Amino acid sequence: MQKNNLWLIFSICLLLSFSLITIWSTFPSLFLTQLSFVLVGVLIVLFFTKIDTSLLLNFSWFWYVLSLFLLIITFFVGRNIRGSVRWIDFGFFNLQTSEIVKPFLAIFYASYLSRNSLKKYSDFLRFLFLTIVPVLLVAKQPDLGSALTLFFLPIFLLIVAGHFKRLLFLGIVFLAIFVPLEAKLLKPYQRERLETFIDPYKDPKGAGYNVIQATIAIGSGGLLGKGVRLGTQSHLNFLPERHTDFIFASFSEEFGFVGIVVVLAAFFSIFRHCLYIAKRQKELSGYYLTLGILSVFLFQFFVNVGMNLGIMPVTGITLPIFSY
Question: How much is the pTM?
Fold first, then answer.
């Protein structure tokens, strides 16, 4: 096994270990469930390592249609939890369809861009239309965090494919239309989150509460942390969503600055390895697929860590390989 692969495996195992320890510490009743998900995830990874990537790419339209089907059927058979219909209940676990379609759409976009140059503006707009449909379906659930992730995925690939100027032009046009209509397009809670991002202390006991408690938890960890099961913010229930959206704050409180450095180093090791894999791809489709998967991890990582630190708006995005 190559040295780079060993570093990748080590980095992933390190993050999974910290994830399990943090969940055992902050939400022990979910530890065995998370452990079972990790084991099942490892089996799925081993299964897909035996499959030729070109086989998946050759059926790219199937993955796209399947993605739309899963997102649409969620509205009919999905569970309504706190006003959102995002999960399909299978009895022994809930499937969040917006999560499962991420790799499916990455396969589709990679295959599509490798076979179509998008030189004509009509071809470019057609691709954008195909990408915006799943984004709108997820936004309708509503799940702004996953919708933004699914939006960033094709945008990242279009930039890699050399369409930055077109995207910049369309972005300016979009902002010119969106800004005047912002009050009508954004839901009250979404607007509230943006205002909270600018000034979380405007409503410290309401909209700004999550961000304030997360930054307090991270800061109170100090250099070496308070120790496992000794975090006050998470164990005294000051920190909301301590095992999902704000698990980074829970971890930081108990493991401190040293633990944060180790976790960040593990993530950057994975990102670096993804770039290494992308450069080694002989086919353009494989290159785009690797970078598409990387874009999902990058976006979720920076947004989640950023909102835990109070430098990004709270969007309900979990930390990859770490959150419950």
Answer: 0.92
